[in-house]
Amino acid sequence: MKQEFLLPDLGEGLAEAEVVQWLVAVGDTVTLNQTLAEVETAKAVVELPSPYEGTVSVLHAQAGETVEVGAPLIAFEVAGEEPSVPDAPTTGDAESALEEKAEPNLVGYGAAPSSRGRPARRARRVGVAVSDAGAEEAVRAAAPHDAVATAVVDAPLERPRSTPPVRKYAKDKGVDLVLLSAELATVDDPAPLITRRDVDAYLARISERSTTARDAVSVERGSQAPSPSGERTTRVPIRGVRKHTAEAMVRSAFTAPHVTTFHTVDVTDTMALIASLRADRTLSEHRIGPLAVVAKAVCLTLPQYPGLNAFWDETAGEIVQNHFVDLGIAAATERGLIVPVIREAQSLSLPAMADALRALASTARAGKTQPAELAGGTFSITNIGSFGIDAGTPILPPGQSGILATGAVRRQPWEYRGEIALREVMTLSLSFDHRLVDGAEGSQFLKAVADILQEPGRALLY
């Protein structure tokens, strides 16, 4: 019998994913939990295991296409007879009947969302042709006759159907979902589920109309119309990690009042300590570096400055202070910037911190960082020194009040014990949310971290 696998909810409220590559083809025999495909969400590339054992009969999307959560992704022919079609349930039993028919759509991802009543819309989004007549017949066969009749003839006015993230996105973009719902509505689907793509398409149509109007005015005034795009330009779709990063940065930059302060510190003793630890055979495999020492210094210092390890809860009207450190580490990947999190970083020793950083970087470079590993950070570090940069003004990840940028370690003339000497120095750049953190607290925190880097032995005081 035929079994459809719908794209599961991959966590963190993600509404869609792009198919990166299929690892199976039509006609292939697959086993339970065999990897079917790699899909890219707004945060990471995720492997999808098979929830069935059988033969692949249909691939509903091609590589490069975007599929919404709950839309058909792949179909299987599995052993067993097609279940008999039960009598249509009465109105009172409809809800319980649907609950009984719910089945797991992926190990660990809960029940498959119901797709009844929306085959035409979902098929269009992944490029699968489904006739209107067939879709209408499927809906009528699956629902009581009275329900179908009243849905078309006398549907009450309700709030447009959409998810909370889409409603917020539309509000931020100034889109009236009532108008958009009316534009998308059809006889078969009078209350369509509005997605982010619908909002973007609506904005594109509005922009196109505005551009057309401006061009018409320019022609009337004798202005030269702009030349079309040619070989000298390339248009790259905004999607995946880049799209998520852009949205997060805009949301943070225009929500939290950012302040950045800088401090240049002599890290000669820290670099000597690192060289000594690397020379120790019992520690050499940990590959302890400057970033690990900075991360450890941050974890030691944060408890004394709770505002830097907190977030502003606008809805509750509260400042939420964390008594643990989930440390975000910015990582540049081929797909864009991501900030995976080291959980409970305050409990790690220096060698364990170095191991965690190395594992995090390796996973990020391979594109295997999972969405859950990108959520919930309480403070972040970005190592811009790896690009030869001394200082910067990093933007806070949403939900955090502090981020520290570490610059390149440079050997240069420096005042040392009343004389000029060649010393190894580093510039630290701290951005913080001025709603939670005053300038004095931010400066004192930065100075405390710098003191540990200047004299590593001060870590024994914590």
From TrEMBL:
Its cofactor is (R)-lipoate. Its EC number is 2.3.1.-. It comes from the Bacteria. One of its GO terms (cellular component) is cytoplasm. CDD domains: lipoyl_domain. SUPFAM superfamilies: CoA-dependent acyltransferases (SSF52777), Single hybrid motif (SSF51230). Residues 161-203 form the Peripheral subunit-binding (PSBD) domain. It is an enzyme of class 2 (transferase). Keywords: Acyltransferase, Lipoyl, Pyruvate, Transferase. The keyword Transferase applies. GO terms for molecular function: acetyltransferase activity; lipoic acid binding. Residues 2-77 form the Lipoyl-binding domain. Gene3D superfamilies: 2.40.50.100, Chloramphenicol acetyltransferase-like domain, E3-binding domain. Residues 213-234 are annotated as: Disordered. Belongs to the 2-oxoacid dehydrogenase family. PANTHER family: DIHYDROLIPOAMIDE ACETYLTRANSFERASE COMPONENT OF PYRUVATE DEHYDROGENASE COMPLEX, LIPOAMIDE ACYLTRANSFERASE COMPONENT OF BRANCHED-CHAIN ALPHA-KETO ACID DEHYDROGENASE COMPLEX, MITOCHONDRIAL. This is Dihydrolipoamide acetyltransferase component of pyruvate dehydrogenase complex.
